[in-house]
Amino acid sequence: xxxxxxxxxxxxxxxxxxxxxxxxxxxxxxxxxxxxxxxxxxxxxxxxxxxxxxxxxxxxxxxxxxxxxxxxxxxxxxxxxxxxxxxxxxxxxxxxxxxxxxxxxxxxxxxxxxxxxxxxxxxxxxxxxxxxxxxxxxxxxxxxxxxxxxxxxxxxxxxxxxxxxxxxxxxxxxxxxxxxxxxxxxxxxx
Length: 190
Prior knowledge:
The protein has about 190 residues and is of the alpha/beta class. It has a single domain, classed as Rossmann fold (3-Layer(aba) Sandwich), CATH 3.40.50.2020. The chain has four helices and ten strands, in the order βββαβαβββαβαββ. The chain has helices at about 40-55, 70-80, 115-125, 140-150; strands at about 5-10, 15-25, 30, 60-65, 85, 100-105, 110-115, 125-135, 155-165, 175-180. The strands form three sheets. The protein has a five-stranded parallel beta sheet, sandwiched between helices. Strands 1-2-3 form a three-stranded antiparallel beta sheet, covered by helices on one side. The chain has a two-stranded antiparallel sheet with strand order 6-7. β2 and β3 form a beta hairpin. α1 crosses α2 (about 70-80).
């Protein structure tokens, strides 16, 4: 029998979801958003983000592998713009790839992101939008910015389904909602 896990209820573009709370560090818990396999959520979020991005001048969407791939794909379809996935492992066919290192809050481990040579040519000189499912500590976003800047792209905006943590850090991010960080006290639990 599985233990009962506390959840945090959210509304994402009109869809209700119960996000499980998981401890990431010393009693601090986060509500985990896992969009993989949730087609209805991905489509609703992509449609809502496409509407919010409609006023911007940009030509390419960029995300990091892996959970946000279905989101950026659906957003690409909705906006008729191509997308680039920054990979987490290097393959020889990637050619003269750029790399940047980050530490993810969900894994707690150091990760390297790679911008493939083909995709590097696509974004060079382009106005791009960085896309993620959740922007929390900002480390993945920082690594993505580093790569696109070094590739000569101009970041027009940053977008996500949710931001998390201190709202002031993410005032400029186009997001559909904001998630609190839970410290275990009754006032932070739903």
